[in-house]
């Protein structure tokens, strides 16, 4: 009855705002960011592969479609900076040029670790300060402790929720339906 008292113009605005604030959690979001074309990717992904993602967090991270699905899930929770930091650290460890090492370390620190960083990850003060000191004389292992903390956080917190999420369950259903 109260809805009838709201002017039509306000109802339309409320509906639009409701749609904007609604966070989606379906496999459609996952397909939008797949590494290759969504339909082709889903055809390539077997139920066994997707099921193996539940075996361990590292199995999920090592599979390109698993990584894409987990990233899509983290976006629905507004916490994709954790995965982006972890990936940046993995890329950093592959750096061979000493000149690039320092600039990459500084960029990662400023983007993810520094207080008030644009995509600040949730790590404790001691880890943040140790990382700050490590970046002063960067080595391939200067982010190891911070990366480990973020990995552990994702594994204990986000990963179990991902396995229960609509993104993952829809994806499994989609691969199983293909077999029928």
From TrEMBL:
UniProt-annotated location(s): Cell membrane; Cell projection, Dendrite; Nucleus; Perikaryon
Any one of the GO CC terms: plasma membrane
Keywords for the protein's UniProt record, in alphabetical order: Cell membrane, Cell projection, Membrane, Nucleus, Signal transduction inhibitor
UniProt protein name: Regulator of G-protein signaling 8
Organism: Dasyornis broadbenti
Pfam families: RGS
PROSITE patterns noted in UniProt: RGS (PS50132)
Chief location bin: membrane
A GO BP annotation: negative regulation of signal transduction
Keyword presence, Nucleus: yes
Chain ranges of the RGS domain: 56-172
Record membrane topology: Peripheral membrane protein
């Amino acid at each position: 009855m109260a809805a009838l008292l709201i002017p039509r113009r306000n109802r339309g605005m409320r509906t639009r705002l409701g749609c904007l604030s609604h966070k989606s959690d379906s496999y459609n979001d996952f397909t939008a960011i797949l590494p290759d074309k969504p339909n082709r990717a889903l055809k390539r992904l077997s139920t066994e592969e997707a099921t193996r993602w539940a075996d361990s967090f590292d199995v999920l991270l090592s599979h390109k479609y698993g990584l894409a699905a987990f990233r899509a899930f983290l976006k629905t929770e507004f916490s994709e900076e954790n995965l982006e930091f972890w990936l940046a650290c993995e890329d950093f460890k592959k750096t061979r040029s000493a000149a690039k090492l320092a600039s990459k370390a500084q960029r990662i620190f400023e983007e993810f670790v520094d207080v008030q960083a644009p995509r600040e990850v949730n790590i404790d003060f001691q880890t943040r300060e140790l990382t700050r000191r490590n970046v002063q004389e960067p080595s391939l292992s200067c982010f190891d402790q911070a990366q480990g903390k973020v990995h552990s956080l994702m594994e204990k917190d986000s990963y179990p929720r991902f396995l229960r999420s609509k993104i993952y369950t829809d994806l499994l259903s989609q691969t199983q339906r293909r077999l029928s």
